[in-house]
Amino acid sequence: MNNDSLEELNQNQESESAQEQTKDESEWRKELNPEQYHVLREKGTERAFTGRYWDLKDAGTYRCAACGEPLFTSETKYDSGSGWPSFYQPADASSVKELADHSHGMIRTEVTCAKCDSHLGHVFPDGPPETGLRYCVNSASLDFEKQEEGDAE
Ligand SMILES: [Zn+2]
Predict the structure, then answer these.
(1) Which residue of the set 64, 67, 113, 136 is catalytic?
(2) Distance between CA atoms of 29 and 44, rounded to whole angstroms?
(3) Is residue 41, in this structure, part of any structural domain at all?
(4) Does 73 reside within a domain?
C-alpha cells in the first residue's frame, strides 16, 4: 500500500521519547511496585513480619529500592524482634538523612535516603550497645544484594 501512514507513526513515537528530566511522582509510580511506592514515596509502613528482609541473615548490601544507593550492610543488621529489618548504623553516615517526624501523635525521627529522599523508616534510641540506635527500616524500601561467595574480607 503506501508508506505515508508508517512514516507518520515513527514521527509520533520519536517526539514522545525526547523528554528526559528528573523523576517526578508519576515516574516513581511506574518504576516501583505499589507497595514500594506507598512506603518510599508516601511514607507508608509495611506490616511487621511481612517484609522480605526482616529475618534475612545472609551477608550482603541493602540498597535503596528507589535509586540503588547502598544504605545498610548485613554487618550492622541485628534481630530486634520488631518484625522489620533493623540495623544499628547505616553503611555510611552520609547515605541517610534523619528528620523530625511528629505524625501519628508521636515524636519520632524519620530516616530517608540522602540521595533520592525516599522514605526508609525510623530510627529509635533503643538499639544495641554498639551505637544505642535502632534503624527500623521497611523491607519494601530495600533491595538486597547478596555478597558473592569467596568475596568475604
Ligand atoms: Zn534512594
Answers:
(1) 136
(2) 14
(3) yes
(4) yes
